[in-house]
Specification:
Blueprint (H helix, E strand, L loop, with lengths): L3 E8 L8 E7 L19 E7 L7 E7 L15 E4 L5 E11 L2 E12 L7 E4 L7 E9 L6 E8 L7 E7 L7 E4 L18 E4 L5 E9 L12 E8 L2
Antiparallel strand pairs: 1-2, 2-3, 3-4, 5-6, 6-7, 7-8, 9-10, 10-11, 11-12, 13-14, 14-15
Length: about 240
């Protein structure tokens, strides 16, 4: 897709629907080999919605929002958005916008978006949790009822803090998300790295929010050589 960076796809699974979507950051032509997004001459900061109304034969692009362009994607601070289509055809997306002062990491704004016209126009809701810290990975889902929203994220409170997973739900777009700690055990040690592999949230057929995430194992305090050499995949569910 033209000017696409970090992207996630979604399809409208309604019977006979031809709509496909991509929700992306932009790369301004960077190749992530010699030049990375956010480096001089390759300024980023635009969220794009790419929409196909003919099963992918052609696409239209729409601007969704702007985001902080101080960080290059190679730093790990600008990562994939999440996108899904509710049963009524509304499109929802989530993006963690890194906040900085003079490129010093200070926090993250977590933004939820909704389009009711097939990705052409979007409304934004700030779903940033209290004491958000530095959110690296995030995911969202819409339940089978078509309006209950689930959000999950990885965060650490400071640049050198330990990583934890949080998740929560909202009864509908525009309503606050109620978050809670998914796992009391850290999923990664102090520092600026965490595995985002396999991270996802989703609702089951009775409306429970499920969370899958990676947790580093065999950590020895003070011994950086053990950090995330091994990891396990965990599953959690609301009760």
């Amino acid at each position: 897709m033209p000017d696409s960076g970090w992207c996630r796809p979604a399809a409208d699974h309604s019977n006979g629907s031809p709509y496909l979507y991509m929700f992306c950051t932009n790369d301004s032509g960077a190749d992530d080999n010699i030049n990375s997004e956010g480096t001089p001459g390759y300024t980023v900061g635009t969220l794009w919605s790419y929409v196909s109304a003919d099963n992918g034969a052609s696409w239209k692009r729409y601007k969704v929002d702007s985001y902080n362009s101080n960080f290059a994607s190679s730093s790990g601070d600008i990562t994939w958005p999440a996108v899904t289509v509710a049963k009524n055809g509304y499109v929802y997306a989530l993006f963690a916008n890194p906040v900085s002062v003079n490129q010093v990491k200070t926090g993250t704004t977590l933004n939820l978006y909704r389009s009711t016209d097939h990705g052409a126009h979007w409304t934004k809701q700030d779903v940033t949790p209290a004491n958000a810290g530095l959110i690296r990975y995030s995911w969202m889902s819409v339940a089978g009822d078509g309006h209950t929203i689930g959000v999950g994220y990885f965060t650490h409170q400071t640049v050198n803090g330990n990583w934890h997973v949080f998740a929560g739900t909202s009864s509908s777009f525009g309503t606050a998300v109620s978050y809670s700690l998914v796992d009391p055990v850290e999923v990664a040690p102090a520092g600026d790295f965490a595995f985002g592999d396999f991270f996802e949230v989703g609702f089951d057929n009775v409306g429970r929010l499920n969370v899958v995430y990676t947790r580093c194992t065999d950590l020895i305090p003070g011994d950086d050589t053990t950090d995330c050499l091994n990891s396990d995949i965990y599953f959690a569910r609301t009760v």
